[in-house]
Amino acid sequence: xxxxxxxxxxxxxxxxxxxxxxxxxxxxxxxxxxxxxxxxxxxxxxxxxxxxxxxxxxxxxxxxxxxxxxxxxxxxxxxxxxxxxxxxxxxxxxxxxxxxxxxxxxxxxxxxxxxxxxxxxxxxxxxxxxxxxxxxxxxxxxxxxxxxxxxxxxxxxxxxxxxxxxxxxxxxxxxxxxxxxxxxxxxxxxxxxxxxxxxxxxxxxxxxxxxxxxxxxxxxxxxxxxxxxxxxxxxxxxxxxxxxxxxxxxxxxxxxxxxxxxxxxxxxxxxxxxxxxxxxxxxxxxxxxxxxxxxxxx
Length: 298
Ligand SMILES: [Zn+2]
What we know:
Layout: E1 3-10, E2 13-20, E3 25-32, H1 39-50, E4 57-64, E5 68-69, E6 74-77, E7 85-87, H2 89-97, E8 101-105, H3 106-117, E9 125-131, E10 135-141, E11 144-146, H4 182-193, H5 200-208, H6 212-236, E12 240-244, H7 255-265, H8 268-273, E13 275-278, H9 284-297
Parallel strand pairs: 1-4, 4-8, 9-12, 12-13
Antiparallel strand pairs: 1-2, 2-3, 5-6, 6-7, 9-10, 10-11
Helix pairs in contact: 3-9, 4-6, 5-6, 6-7
Zinc ion binds near residues 158, 170, 172 and 175.
């Protein structure tokens, strides 16, 4: 059975696991990344975190926040890892380990992992939304990831939900992730009440406790998300829409109205065939490793 390495680069840590092609994790390793980084110190840490797992692997898949160039395998910059710029991930790892290296943004990796190993893996195509700090998106058709030109496509979080709406981290007003994401909920709640909540769980606790402001923010956010998904479904016509990421732990608080609004606003011919719901709990490292398994196949 073939084995592949998946690398998940996040703000604060590098996680690496070795998987077999059925998705079983065989070994793992991780390193905390220091606050002050430069390209050389980061690449050294990355190589040393991967090294103990390299034996028996047919390739390395890497996921990180974008923006990136998936052809050259370069991370252009990162909002969470200041100090890194034009980081040549693919060339450095290929040289070090003499293995093929595939590199995509983390939302695309999550989407591919979900499409290959998750709850909706049997379907022809999947649109996957990662609901977390922000909103990531990915589209997989017949087991292949659609990344857009050089890897920055399906950025559903940064599609417009409210014209001239709240300011998003990307610098534009009204993106859907300004209304439905951890950042969105906390910012909208602070705007309304002048209270900064520490995390999404605190926000959902307020919703459960019947707090009117929190409930209104969630209801409006759910509506904006539903219409972002509607737009994407009308464009892509996926067989399944799958929601993954930390916020889906609270799916019972918004999933019903979300699915209802989507189903009521897409073409009825699309609605009849569409499957929709929360995904499996596929790790970022397995998502990255699935890049290798998929490239093997095509
Ligand atoms: Zn935005």
